[in-house]
Amino acid sequence: MNLNDPVELAKLLEALLLAHNQPLTIERIVALFEEDEKLTTNQIKAALTALAESCQGRAYELKEVASGYRLQVHSSFSPWVSRLWEEKPQRYSRALLETLALVAYRQPVTRGEIEDIRGVAVNSQIIKTLQERDWIRVVGYKDVPGKPAMLATTKAFLDYFNLKSLEELPTLSSIKPVQEELPVLVDELTMALEQQPALTEPVIKQEQEKSFKELLDEWDDLEEGVKTDFSDLIVVKPEIPE
């Protein structure tokens, strides 16, 4: 095999992505080659471009998400492919989906701030479930009395909703539209999650991850401003007894 040929290399990358059940980064792909097969990042990118072009008109596509590149069934086939899985997807409560939406759009956000927007207390089990699902994580602690934990979304959240980065999220102009549009968002999320089959590990990963843009395309009052840099957060280290 001529690894210097982008078309030949694209076939090899297709095999690697088909064999792996998780996205692969360019760095991870480069590391798979021996010293005498040494490839550059640009060669891998050129091969990925060739692979994406070869997928045009096929039932699957090359998709870049937060964790890297993956091959997945095209979303247009999702209604039929989902019938292969008899197990119903997990149901999530309206309160959990509201909490997830607020973390996604107001991050980093504290539990108290979520409660202020929703107008009701957030059950601890909701936060625990979202953390176990690896959709949210603690990114720091707010510099106010009590040092409340600040929550933000994870790479797994971006992967699940077919997003490369937070910049791809539609953004909101203020807290008020969030309160007004929250019921619409939750209805859209609920419908999408109910249509998704149970998690599996097919050779070509089924596209059960709906685009977050598709779920929120009816939202109004959008503007730029999603926070993606958490370097200004204050992290409180636990005190070690002497």
From TrEMBL:
UniProt-listed InterPro entries: ScpB_csome_segregation, WH-like_DNA-bd_sf, WH_DNA-bd_sf
Coiled coil: none
A Pfam entry, by short name: SMC_ScpB
Lineage, top ranks: Bacteria, Pseudomonadati, Pseudomonadota, Gammaproteobacteria, Pseudomonadales
Keyword Glycosyltransferase: no
Protein name listed in UniProt: SMC-Scp complex subunit ScpB
Domain of life: Bacteria
Organism of provenance: Entomomonas moraniae
SUPFAM superfamilies assigned to the protein according to its UniProt record, in alphabetical order: Winged helix' DNA-binding domain (SSF46785)
GO biological process, one term: cell division
Keywords for this protein: Cell cycle, Cell division, Chromosome partition, Cytoplasm
Gene3D superfamilies: Winged helix-like DNA-binding domain superfamily/Winged helix DNA-binding domain (1.10.10.10)
